[in-house]
Design goal:
With 763 residues, this protein is an alpha+beta fold. Helices cover 40% and strands 15% of the residues. It contains 24 helices and 22 strands.
Length: 763
């Protein structure tokens, strides 16, 4: 039998083929126990091969809704389970650029090796779920044969380089950043100077500063196109930003250089990588992103170190080898440009045209957005879309960071036929870039870190909004909603108008899925502002929460007022107060639906806890202390918005102490309020014993309290105060989780004790 390796030998780039051969050999070494699991874990992650969650939960893709049954197992636990539990394969698509041939291959792979669904990510990648690791070398070879690699799709490496999907056709761009993004991804792929990072490194390119484009300010390194006139000649360059990132504690990137000449882009990127590799954190994973290094050093010192590094680097011809070809870079339209005429159109076309079509700066051409539900597209739809690209757009296809696909250079006159074909294959949803176009991470569907069902909630909200889309006020229609299944912001909730991230609460004997409500983020201006959580609401009340917020916006917004300005003028204190009745959870006996998540009929139960007044009293004490802690951290946020950074920091610190006190009082009711005593008792009883540790984050959130207690800030800035508020919120969420685990263990122990027959002398 001819293998894919043999069949595709002449079609693969030799370098890519060699890397896949090495990975296949490493797989065999791991299978035989000859390669350490930690080394192999990073190896497979750098090839984009992930472990995956198996809850047998409900898919929320709108394409299939049956229960998915797969064998239990964990891709990270060694050879016994590694080869039996399918995982996830991430596939890098630099700047989102696709050809029709690549789309066909992706469709084939999703059918042959996965579950028939392709998922577009918020980094313009594709993900295939339920892929067996034994199949990954063949999958990688078939991708390599059409110029796609999975190398460094994950791991402590440079991830997929993203760019504005309108680059080259945008009416407002300074210049087309596509060739720079493409060349950057090639230059840094596998580069020796990017192999020793403590964490991942994300890069984005944007053609302008005002729109969302590349979301530059939330990236480790981001470049915005700028021009200058020097000696009468126009020069291209970039406003370069460094040290941004979302995650649990988001940081906005700092301006490294307002005009970095194009010929210095790669040398400086390499120098930044070298400084990050040398000075970045390696031991404490939660502090290992470059944003923490920039914050620690300050942008001025970081810039000085990078420029010094630049001087020491040997010249590399690859730095500027691509530049002569940049002016020659052109995309070729497939068909002649013609304006949209007045011929009869399919019902629904006009509404779709208003939300899903962007008129290019090139007259007579348009970008058509395929609004994918939850970022998912079936293999059959992908093939059909590839054929449509051949017919209408040629090779001008891109994925977007909003989990959609766009076809560029579509002649305006072809749009009615194009829409008819989209409707035929079930991809004619309108509302791209509106409130119904919701971004969501995988959440509890497949992600091991998921707390609540982000996809389930997104599907529910989308369905409700779509049913009344034409009734929605225009101001609300243009808002962005983004949902993450946990605090890590993979759904980018921090930069949405209205964001949600998953949490849980323990109510009596049961766990209840919740979402924190995040307001104040800004999608435009390349992620111009980050929102903050104002309170946690039960998952089942999030649609009502959204409705209440948007209705008030419509009713009380001033003329032309943006949602961010509305949030500021109303005030988060008032908005939280408006939601407080929605934060309450009815008793289980009164309404059990609150104790399940969206799209999943199973209960978030921790089992029946043995009845007893002491247990009841302890739980109520913890809840009382945590409520006080949440109130303090919200007050800290209000002070932050008021510009009182010193008081914001103080309240955030007190909130963490209050949360720690709540846990301590489950074991030691008479603990004093002295901060030294609280921190000492918390460390001894919960950190040192690892009761505070969870299986994914370990005890990292405890360090937020330890660090603030040991080293109070010397100066109070907005960035520092904001970080303090974010860290306090995360610490309190970790206390909630720890309290839930303690309650679960006590319930288990009580249940076991009640099941053991009494022996003589007992009772």
């Amino acid at each position: 039998m001819i293998t894919w390796k043999e069949k595709l030998a002449d079609q693969m780039d030799p370098a890519l083929a060699g890397e896949i051969d090495i990975f296949e050999l490493q797989m065999e070494q791991r299978r035989q126990g000859q390669l350490d699991e930690k080394i192999f874990a990073e190896t497979r992650l750098r090839r984009g091969v992930y472990g995956q969650r198996y809850d047998n939960g409900q898919r929320h893709d709108g394409i299939r809704t049956q229960q998915l049954q797969y064998p239990s197992g964990d891709l990270t636990k060694g050879p016994e389970t590694l080869w039996h539990a399918p995982g996830m394969q991430r596939i890098k698509i630099p700047f989102g650029g696709l050809t029709s041939e690549q789309m066909d291959v992706l469709a084939d792979l999703s059918e042959e090796y996965a579950d028939g669904i392709l998922h577009v990510t918020t980094r313009q990648d594709f993900q295939l779920h339920f892929v067996n690791i034994d199949d990954t070398p063949s999958l990688m070879r078939r991708l390599a044969a059409v110029g796609i690699t999975t190398r460094e799709a994950c791991g402590n490496s440079v991830r997929n380089v993203t760019a504005c999907p309108l680059a080259g056709v945008c009416r407002d761009e300074v210049f087309d950043v596509t060739p720079y993004a493409k060349a950057c991804s090639r230059f840094l792929l596998g580069h020796a100077d990017v192999q020793d990072f403590g964490r991942k490194f994300k890069i984005a390119f944007s053609g302008c500063k005002d729109h969302a484009c590349g979301l530059v300010t939330m990236h480790d390194m981001g470049a915005i196109a700028v021009k200058r006139i020097k000696n009468g000649k126009e020069k291209r360059g970039f406003a370069l930003y460094v040290g941004g990132g979302l995650g649990a504690v988001p940081h906005q990137a700092k301006l490294f250089d307002s005009f970095l000449p194009e010929d210095e882009l790669f040398p400086i990127a390499q120098a930044i990588s070298r400084v990050f590799a040398r000075l970045g954190e390696k031991k404490i994973r939660s502090r290992a992103r470059i944003k923490f290094l920039v914050a620690k050093l300050g942008i001025d010192e970081f810039r000085r170190l990078v420029l010094e590094e630049r001087k020491t680097m040997p010249e590399d011809p690859r730095w500027n080898a691509y530049l002569p070809d940049v002016p020659k870079y052109r995309e070729t339209p497939l068909r002649e440009s013609k304006s949209l005429n007045g011929e009869q159109r399919l019902e629904g076309f006009e509404q779709w045209y208003r939300t899903n079509v962007y008129r290019q700066r090139q007259p007579g051409y348009a970008v058509a957005t395929i609004n994918l539900r939850l970022g998912d597209i079936s293999a059959w739809q992908m093939r059909e879309l590839a054929d449509m690209a051949r017919r209408f757009a040629g090779e001008n296809v891109r994925t977007t960071v909003e989990q959609n696909i766009v076809l560029r250079w579509v002649s305006e006159a072809d749009l009615p036929d194009f829409y008819r074909e989209l409707k035929r294959i079930g991809l004619g949803d309108l509302g791209a870039g509106t409130i119904v176009d919701i971004t969501a991470c995988p959440g509890t569907d497949t992600c091991k870190l998921g707390i609540a069902s982000s996809r389930g909630l997104a599907a529910e909200i989308r369905t409700r909004l779509a049913s009344k889309f034409f009734e929605i006020d225009e101001a609300v229609k243009n808002l962005r909603i983004k949902i993450s299944g946990c605090f890590n912001s993979c759904g980018q909730h921090h930069i949405s108008d209205i964001g949600f991230y998953g949490t849980s609460r323990t109510i009596g004997n049961h766990k209840v899925p919740h979402f924190q409500v995040v307001l104040g983020g800004k999608w435009v201006e390349n992620a111009g502002a980050y929102g903050l959580a104002i309170g946690s609401v039960p998952a089942k009340r999030i649609p009502e929460t959204l409705e209440r917020i948007t209705e008030r916006y419509v009713k009380e917004r001033q003329d032309g007022e943006s949602f961010q300005d509305f949030v500021r003028h109303i005030g988060k204190k008032e908005l939280r107060g408006m939601l407080e009745d929605l934060m309450k959870v009815p008793p289980y006996q009164e309404d059990a639906s609150f104790y399940t998540d969206w799209g999943d009929p199973r209960e978030f139960s921790i089992g029946d806890m043995a009845a007893g007044e002491c247990a009841g009293e302890v739980v109520s004490l913890v809840q009382f202390d945590l409520a006080a802690a949440e109130r303090m951290v919200f007050e800290a946020q209000v002070k932050l918005d008021d510009g009182d950074y010193s008081r914001a920091d103080e309240l955030a610190y007190k909130a963490m102490l209050q949360g720690a006190k709540g846990l301590i009082r489950t074991e030691f009711l008479d603990v004093s309020d002295d901060p030294d005593t609280l921190v000492s008792e918390f460390r001894k009883r919960f950190y040192d014993t690892k009761l505070f540790h969870d299986r994914f984050a370990g005890g990292k959130f405890a360090h937020y309290l330890f660090r603030r207690h040991k080293t109070p800030p010397q100066e109070h800035t907005r960035d520092a105060a904001r970080q303090a508020v974010e860290e306090a919120q995360l610490f309190i969420e970790a206390v909630h989780a720890c309290q839930g685990r303690i309650a679960e263990r006590r319930a288990s122990a009580a249940s076991l004790a009640s099941a053991v027959p009494l022996q003589a002398g007992e009772g």
